[in-house]
Amino acid sequence: MRKFDVESTQVTMRMAASLAGINADDAQLVRLGENAVFRLAGQAVVARVARSAKQRTDVQRELRLADWLAAHDIPVARPVVPDVVEADGRLVTFWEEIPSPRASTPKELGAALRRFHALSPSAELGLPRIDPLARVQERIAAARALSTAERDALIGYAVVVGQEFAHAVFDLEMSMVHGDGHVDNLVRGSNGRLAFVDLEECAYGQPEWDLVLTAIERDCGWVTAEQYEQFSRAYGYDVTTSPGYEVLRRVRLLRMTSWLAQKAAESAEVLAEVRHRIRTLQTDQVELSWNAY
Prior knowledge:
Helix content: 40-55%
CATH architecture of the largest domain: Alpha-Beta Complex
Number of helices: 9
Number of domains: 2
Strand content: 5-15%
Largest sheet: 5 strands, antiparallel
Strand order of the largest sheet: 1-2-3-5-4
Structural class: alpha+beta
Distance between the termini: 25 Å
Shape: globular
Radius of gyration: 19 Å
């Protein structure tokens, strides 16, 4: 399998930009994670390279969804090229740049998610139901820096929490969800504009799926207790009171670990963090000892 790294994704991005008629000479890497994200400063454009061409349906849905959300007065980054550009066997999308973006506050996120969850998604959007273990197995399989025992431990944990999620009970009515609703995915530009970004995990399901992330960040010490209270008040619900909270928390912690595990070969520091997370998942003594990535 071809390595998903800075060099190869930059080649892909430049090929796609050429096909789309966009100048990518000044491209700068912003983030290498689930996607490779590049800023094309002179064009006020952001390019996103997906890991696999198998994600075509999801990527195309994300483009449609951005336009639909904008039409319903939800703050969102818009595509500047209306369709996916395929280059070098990968998929690339091009988006308007939010100038000098910073993460939203938990209070801003809570208010924005309340509006987001109040939407009634149209059938043509083709939103999938939430899949709590989406991409988890493939991420674990890609974590070749881990031992077989470590990968098996993650797989076993996934089986358990998947079964728990299937029987979980929730308070809130099902709705459209962002899927990755945290402060880094609702940004505020230097022009004052708020915008949701990274819509690839949007789905239909329990609103608690979005809300649990900020609760976990509080428990990790990444947001303060006061900020979490502001988040909950702005949304109008405290997800930690949900009968399904503990299940949601475990699923999300697994997903966070599997996401980082696929990057474990990048440095000794990342590998050590992944191994630490696996150990603490098994004892359920997690949050305050985790580092943010």
